[in-house]
Amino acid sequence: MYQQPYSGAPQQPPTEINDHQGWAIGAIFLFWPLAIPALMASSRCRQALAAGDFATAQMESENAHKWAKLATIIGICWYGVCILISCISGCGAMMAAKDASDSLNSGGY
Questions:
Q1: Can you tell me the distance from the alpha carbon of 68 to that of 72, in angstroms, rounded to the nearest whole number?
Q2: Average pLDDT over the chain, rounded to an integer
Q3: What is the pTM of this model?
Q4: CB atoms within 10 A of CB 13
Q5: What Rg value do the Cα atoms of the chain yield, rounded?
């Protein structure tokens, strides 16, 4: 029976693995539907780091980064669209009020 030689050296952690938890928490305020998977991946990353499974920790770190980035981008775009719509509707309301005021001042004709 052939056995693989045992290297004896424990798996060394790569350079620091970021779990992106802070970014995931911040993304909740921008677009929570995608921030939840980011938080879950961040939690799995921390669990893998604690268990010494650095390959899984790196994979979950990348997942957390991906979901947090998507939540941030979509959230910022969403807020931008909402602000644009609010400005357009506000301008429309002001023009309608001005037209109504002009109509009343001119005797309704």
A1: 6
A2: 86
A3: 0.72
A4: 12
A5: 27
Work out the angle at residue 70's Cα, subtended by the Cα atoms of residues 30 and 19, and round it to the nearest 5 degrees.
90
pLDDT of the residue at 11: 58
**C-alpha closest to that of 59 among 18, 28, 8, 98:** 18
Longest Cα separation, the chain: 105
- Statement: residue 109 has pLDDT above 60: no
| Full 3-state SS string of the chain | CCCCCCCCCCCCCCCCCCCCHHHHHHHHHHHHHHHHHHHHHHHHHHHHHHHCCHHHHHHHHHHHHHHHHHHHHHHHHHHHHHHHHHHHHHHHHHHHHHHHHHHHHCCCC
Q: Indicate whether 3 pLDDT > 80.
A: no
Is it the case that residue 24 has pLDDT exceeding 80? yes
